[in-house]
Amino acid sequence: MSLCLISTSRSVPSSLFRRSFLSFNLRLLSSNQYNNDIIQAEKQQLKLNPTTSKQSPRFRRYHYYLFSIATGALIGTIYALRHVRKHEGNLPEYVTNVELLERKAIETRPVPPPVTKHITFDALPRKNFPFNITLYQYVTCPFCCKVRAYLNYNRIPYDVVEVNSVTHTETKWSLYNKVPIVVIENEQIQLNDSSMIISAIESYLRQPTKNFKNIINLYEAIVQKDQKGNISFNYPNRYFIFEPAVLDQLETTNEEQQSIINKQSKSFFAKLFSRSTAQSNNDSKTVQSENTDRKKSYEENEFERQWREWVDNKFVHVISPNIYCTVRQSISTFRWFSKAGDWEEIFPWYQRWIIVYLGAIVMRGVAIHLKKKYNLNDNVRISLYECGDEWVNTIGDKDFH
Q: Start and end of every GST N-terminal domain (predicted)?
């Protein structure tokens, strides 16, 4: 390269121009030499540190992965926040001042209530229950039937308010929008949920208290309100029978204590001197059945609670599919309900017509839904018989009351 430049400079005619041309070429050669020195130094450095060329792609991949993870986390966070804000209104709102709301609601209840029937008994109650009860019900509701059966068994008098299943006019005052509802008239206390109603009354019968509110305080409700303002009640301990605090318990009088002693002595002598006649056996069974003061064991209470849950969670769901098998059968069933519930005397003809025909169509749809939801047999009678067999086989020869 230098020889070529020197030969070229010799061909230049002017000495001054030749001198400037040579100086330019020398600077060019020196710069090229400098660049070559830099390149050689870099190559030498690469030879001394061979890992540098290998790490640079790894570093690039590392930065790429880190950027990808950060981007994904950012996108996921934005999506989650938008999703939460979108459904924030659908999250349940827990109501804390339930007692105050229920007290205000029951103050708006029509008094006296529109009672449609008074239920009384010739015999005395099995145990003293000194409160007046009003039962708001549908005559067709299995949960209402359960409460009626319990009250009838214990011979507790009560008043019935038949609720229009379409308009719910009779229970519009209540925050609880289902039936049955029981009102303890003496203390203006509202009881909701069939299982909770039975448990509360049974707790009082086993251990009376100074007032019924001491019993209700043992059954705290979890109340939720959705976006539409609908309120739902849940009683987690509705299947439990509680013994109230000692200070809340009602002290038994001398007459009641003497009555308990007499019942126990009659039961003892009936067993000791058992007679062979049929009448004596019947008397002994009557004394034993009336003597309900014995406290149940933990195993008995657990067994009772288990089958109460079974009734609500399994057995009740096979009833509707068996009585609303077709639309025609549903209409026929509601016509029978109209006669059994004395709807002709309670509701006007147009309300009765709506309840019968609209209710029949709605309950037919409910029956189809229950059959699919609980995977019942195509022949729903078989599912009903299976539940009956399960109950009978479990109870066996045990006493049931």
A: 135-203
The CATH number assigned to the domain holding 376 equals 1.20.1050.10
Q: For residues 68 and 275, what is the distance between their CA atoms, to the nearest angstrom?
A: 92
The burial class, CB within 10 Å (0-12 / 13-18 / 19+), for 98 is middle
Q: Phi, psi (5° rounding) for residue 343?
A: -65, -25
Cα-based distances in Å from 95 to 109, 178, 197, 232: 21, 18, 21, 10
Domain boundary residue, one of 224, 248, 272: 248
Mean pLDDT to the nearest integer, 274-288: 45
pLDDT for res 287? 40
* Residue 187 to residue 180: CA distance in whole angstroms: 18
- Average pLDDT for 8-22: 51
Total domains present in the chain:
5
Which residue segment(s) compose the domain that 56 sits in?
A: 52-86
Q: In what order do the strands lie in the sheet containing 158-162?
A: 117-119, 158-162, 133-137, 181-184, 189-192
Pair 348, 398 in one domain: yes
Are 359 and 371 contained in the same domain? Answer: yes
Whether residue 36 sits in one domain with residue 133: no
Cα gap 245→214, rounded to integer Å: 9
